[in-house]
Amino acid sequence: MTTSTTTSAAATGTTAGDGPVRARRPLGSRLAARVGGGLMRVFLVLVALFWLMPTVGLLLSSLRGSDEISSTGWWKVFTAPSQLTFDNYSRLLDNSTITDSLLSTIMITVPATVLVVVIGSLAGYAFAWMEFPGRDWWFLVVVGLLVVPVQVALVPVSKLFGAVGIFETTLGVILFHTAFGLPFAIFLLRNFFAEIPRELLEAARLDGAGEIRLFTRVVMPLGGPAIASLGIFQFLWVWNDMLVALIFADSDSPPITVALQQQVRQFGNNIDVLAPGAFVSMVIPLAVFFAFQRQFVSGVMAGAVK
Fold first, then answer.
1. Residue 112: closest CA among 252, 4, 241
2. Is 11 exposed, middle or buried (0-12, 13-18, 19+ CB in 10 A)?
3. Angle at 185 between CA 180 and CA 187, to 5 degrees
4. How far is residue 235 CA from its own chain's centroid?
5. How many whole angstroms separate alpha carbon 53 and alpha carbon 298?
6. pLDDT tens readout for residues 204-256
7. CA 106, 123, 306: angle at the middle one, nearest 5?
8. Structure confidence by residue, pLDDT tens digits, 56-115
9. Within a 10 A sphere around the Cβ of 42, how many other Cβ atoms?
10. Which residues lie closer than 8 Å to 95 by C-beta, 6 or more apart?
11. At a CB cut-off of 8 Å and minimum separation 6, what does 286 contact?
């Protein structure tokens, strides 16, 4: 009898002769509850500051003279703020190689991003909602192209571009980035568009909407977050690329990544031009990301929910 009473009391969280006893939570749950509060926020802030430190250091270095950069670290600015100057950016604007390379980068990145988004959206809609012979097999081909590395295609594509006369041209770089960006774009958007309720599309068709109107008025607005995420990924990849640009771009007007690499090789002591040039090449994609970060987060969250 005593044993059964003790067992019952232990199961209900009480003891004989005492009041109710609060059940002890597992150690892991208690630690998780403590860590999930203010301590975790402080840790995340410290991690964010740690990752931003190189960007801040590059910014401060770009605002210092070449003598100060070569003699002391960028953190000396906090004790000697008089070192800060915009003369480096004036020299950067006077450097035609850097300014022309920025223009070349924009001329490559914007068309390559727009083409991938437009063609990927059309193809993704076709694979998701249009019936045509061999649709599933063609989609498997697209998925298979995702695993093809860029390095494998450098030699054959170089020969092809040379045969058609677009090697070392801006058009060749755009076409290369577009071709290698399309498999991921089609795969991403097809899976996103396939989650759109069929009833919504059928209702639009009953109202007389054709495929083009259905795509532009129904699918595109609903797929905005995924399309914005794709655009950010493609923009960042093309803007920061150096391998493809080093091989296929025109040597007289290279993108910013190649131009900075050439400046380092030819003029190793012109840090007063390299620092602001590197910061400008970094801050533009950061600005694009922060401008579309709400759409990017919406796309990521929508994909997670689905």
1. 241
2. exposed
3. 110
4. 8
5. 27
6. 888 887 788 888 888 888 888 888 888 988 999 999 998 999 899 888 888 98
7. 95
8. 888 888 888 777 877 777 888 888 888 888 888 888 888 788 888 889 999 999 999 999
9. 10
10. 273, 277
11. 55
